Amino acid sequence: MEIHIIIIVVCVILSAYFSATETAFSTFNRIRIKNMAEKGNKKAALVLKLADNYDSLISTILIGNNIVNILASAMGTLLFAKLIVNQDLAATVSTAVLTVVILVFGEISPKTMAKNSPESFVLFSAPIINFLYIILTPFNLIFRGWQKLLAKLFKKEDDQGMTEEELISIIEEAEEDGDIDKEESDLIKSAIEFGDLEVGDIFTPRIDVTGLPKDATKETVAKTFAESGYSRLPVYEGDIDNIVGILYYKDFYTTAYKTSVSLDEIIKPVIFVAKTQPVNELMKELQEKQLHMAIVTDEFGSTAGIVTLEDILEEIVGEIWDEHDEIVEEIKELGEKEYIVSGKANTEKLFSLFDIDTEEEIEAVTVGGWAMEVLGKIPEVGDSFEEYGLAVEVVEMDGRRVENVHVTDVRASEDEEDSEDDESEVSEE
């Protein structure tokens, strides 16, 4: 009787080991283990080797787990057969007791522990499971052949790999777990989403473009550079719709300012792009041609605005300020769910702040453009509207351009009003 109990205890311990190993190898942080392996940790290198043959590893674990569970059940039946005269009752009691014991001590508890610290457990488990992996190689070969046969019979569609949404979810989980901080998370997510951006999402609109006429005097050029703070200015002939090149600050002051050289001789070539061109393609083109600026055109061929290499980089690393930039806070918090938002702020940035997923596509890229789109006219100070649970009021204009709006999240108050209405209806009934 004692031998039966000892065998059952050993089998449950082994079952716990196999269950924990399965969970640990399914959830461990591969990047963390890879870093340990690169620093010379032999156990970490063994973990990666086993994980690379995951199907065979799982087969080894399942074979071992099933063997010990079946053996534990058999020993339990023999044990209770000696304790209970009625064999049918003995079998029933044995099944009930062993099921509970294996579930609690052989499955649930070890898997929970392994999930809490998978890296520690895979490092502990690797040498043992590798030994069993080698011993059970013949069985694994048989099962691998069976898996290939099943794969042919039930052929599935080609694996499309990880989607962008899945990858971002992993990054957010890593941030929540404390593996990376918010700044690192934002940087990685920006890089992932970079491929979805189009020039129209980031360009500077025509109304904000500072340019120079081709026949401008040197005094005018110097004054424009000084007042704008820009190191590059588009040069046009006639009007802004006919841009002929880009003038660099350093070229002007080192070549033309104190000589008779004309602007026409020192301006750099310019490229023209559509608003629908992917930003990553434009970045590659700018790098290949060693340019820092491109002119954005609309569907009629007119100048819609400009886009710079700095604009592109800011989409990845965030706002870049230099000594000439006036630091402007596009979204300024006034109080709880209440903000002053620049008309130049991106609409996606605004909706992201309030966690709003717009069902219909908004054509406007900026908050000012969105206000014009909703109001159906050039806004005036005091104009207001409500969209997506946001109360928006125009508070400052610069000519025909929206400078600032006041935004309040009214979704919570609307929910409270609806709740109060429901309660009043119930009380009246």
Please tag this protein with its features.
single chain, 429 residues, alpha+beta, CBS-domain, 4 domains, five-stranded antiparallel sheet, four-stranded mixed sheet, 57% helix, elongated
What can you tell me about this protein's structure?
The chain folds into four domains: 2-153, no CATH class; 164-196, no CATH class; 199-317, CBS-domain (Roll); 331-414, 2-Layer Sandwich (Uridine Diphospho-n-acetylenolpyruvylglucosamine Reductase, domain 3). Helix content is 57%, strand content 14%. The protein contains 18 helices and twelve strands. It has a five-stranded antiparallel sheet with strand order 8-9-12-11-10. Strands 1-7-6-5 form a four-stranded mixed sheet.
| Total count of domains | 4
Shape: elongated
Taking the alpha carbons of the first and last residues, their distance comes to: 71 Å
Largest sheet: 5 strands, antiparallel
- Strand percentage, roughly? 5-15%
* SS field, number of helical segments: 18
* Whole-angstrom Rg: 34 Å
| Helix content class | 55-70%
Produce the secondary structure layout.
Blueprint: H1 2-27, H2 30-38, H3 42-52, H4 54-83, H5 87-116, H6 118-135, H7 137-153, H8 164-176, H9 182-193, H10 199-202, E1 204-205, E2 212-213, H11 218-228, E3 232-236, E4 243-248, H12 249-256, H13 263-266, E5 271-274, H14 279-288, E6 293-297, E7 303-308, H15 309-317, E8 331-335, E9 338-342, H16 347-353, H17 367-375, E10 384-387, E11 390-398, E12 401-409, H18 411-428
Parallel strand pairs: 2-3, 5-6
Antiparallel strand pairs: 1-7, 3-4, 6-7, 8-9, 9-12, 10-11, 11-12
